[in-house]
């Protein structure tokens, strides 16, 4: 509607003055006719962009063209720990959450571990402009840092999933801190940026985990409310559905672990998300 209004305004001001009107002085900048033409050009660009998105969705085998996420919120929502996920003195520790509080009909895609290094997946996500956040374990990615550096170059944030993907509550505070701070140091060294988000392996943690994470510079601990596979979605909630702000977990996996590839998984999760009227937004834009 705003674009239509712009077109009407530009066309209306393009009407010439009467024959008896004094000549107007030349002014710098685009002519009124140029304003209308510019508005038309913008409309054409929007149409071309949508056609390109439709073509790319078909190219990558998506059932529907993904919905566009709204602009990032100017004011970030307040993130608090989900009820039932607290530890002692939780208010002093990074919040643990499965859903971002928002009324936007968006969900967030997060991918864990780093076992599968599929170049086709990176190309697919870059061309489709589907945002996602990675949580990396070093023992799985250390043989392919360039792969994940290329992923980072497309705008993906690389976050902390520990050095060795161990069950954190079974470790002492000191060992947990080695796992978390060690991965902080590794990611900063290899990729140039120290993470602020941490996801404990298997989603398991205790107070020592969060104390250690905080001491290593972690600000928040996003878990998940749904999990994506190439052939299904699993849900945490009783209604087995998506909700605004839900975080979706999946993994860097391939045919060795799944009945499909990472692009197959994306096709399935995007069909589910789009069918339910959701767009995938960038998690960091809301934190």
3D architecture notes:
The protein is α/β, with parallel strands linked by helices and 287 residues long. The chain is 36% helix and 12% strand. The protein is built from 8 helices and 9 strands. The protein has helices at 2-12, 32-59, 119-128, 138-141, 145-153, 173-191, 207-215, 262-275, and strands at 96-97, 106-113, 133-136, 157-160, 221-222, 226-228, 233-235, 247-251, 279-281. The strands form 2 sheets. Strands 2, 3, 4, 6, 7, 8 and 9 form a 7-stranded mixed sheet that branches. A two-stranded parallel ribbon has the order 1-5. Helix 3 links the parallel strand 2 and strand 3 (133-136). Helix 1 runs antiparallel to helix 2 (32-59) and helix 6 (173-191) runs parallel beside helix 7 (207-215). It is globular and about 60 Å long. Residues 1-33 have low confidence and may be disordered.
Core attributes:
two-stranded parallel sheet, globular, seven-stranded mixed sheet, alpha/beta, 12% strand, 287 residues
Write a short abstract of this structure.
The protein is an alpha/beta fold and 287 residues long.
- Helix count equals 8
Average pLDDT number: 89
- The rough form would be described as globular
Major β-sheet annotation: 7 strands, mixed
Encode the helix/strand succession as letters.
HHEEHEHHEHHEEEEHE
- End-to-end span in angstroms? 31 Å
Q: Low-confidence stretches at least 5 residues in length (pLDDT < 50)?
A: 1-33
* Helix coverage percent: 25-40%
Given helix and strand content, the structural type is: alpha/beta
Instruction: Work out the strand percent.
Output: 5-15%
- Overall number of strands: 9
Radius of gyration: 24 Å
């Amino acid at each position: 509607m705003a674009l239509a209004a712009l077109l009407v305004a530009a066309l209306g001001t393009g009407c010439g003055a009467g024959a008896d009107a004094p000549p107007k002085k030349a002014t710098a900048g685009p002519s009124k006719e140029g304003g209308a033409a510019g508005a038309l050009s913008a409309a054409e660009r929007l149409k071309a962009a949508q056609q390109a998105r439709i073509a790319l969705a078909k190219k990558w085998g998506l059932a529907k063209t993904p919905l566009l996420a709204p602009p990032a919120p100017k004011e970030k929502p307040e993130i608090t720990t989900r009820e039932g996920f607290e530890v002692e003195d939780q208010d002093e520790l990074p919040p643990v959450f499965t859903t971002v509080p928002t009324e936007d009909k968006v969900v967030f895609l997060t991918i864990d571990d780093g076992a599968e290094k599929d170049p086709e997946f990176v190309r697919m996500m870059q061309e489709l402009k589907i945002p996602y956040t990675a949580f990396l374990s070093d023992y799985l990615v250390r043989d392919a840092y360039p792969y994940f550096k290329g992923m980072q170059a497309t705008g993906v944030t690389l976050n902390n999933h520990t050095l060795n993907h161990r069950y954190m509550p079974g470790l002492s505070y000191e060992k947990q801190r080695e796992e978390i701070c060690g991965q902080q140091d590794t990611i900063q060294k290899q990729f140039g940026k120290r993470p602020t988000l941490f996801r404990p392996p298997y989603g398991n943690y205790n107070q020592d985990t969060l104390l250690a994470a905080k001491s290593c510079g972690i600000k928040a601990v996003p878990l998940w409310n749904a999990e994506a596979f190439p052939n299904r979605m699993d849900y945490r909630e009783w209604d087995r559905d998506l909700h605004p702000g839900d975080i979706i977990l999946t993994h860097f996996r391939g045919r060795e672990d799944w009945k499909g590839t990472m692009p197959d998984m994306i096709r399935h999760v995007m069909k589910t998300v789009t069918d339910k009227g959701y767009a995938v937004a960038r998690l960091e834009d809301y934190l």
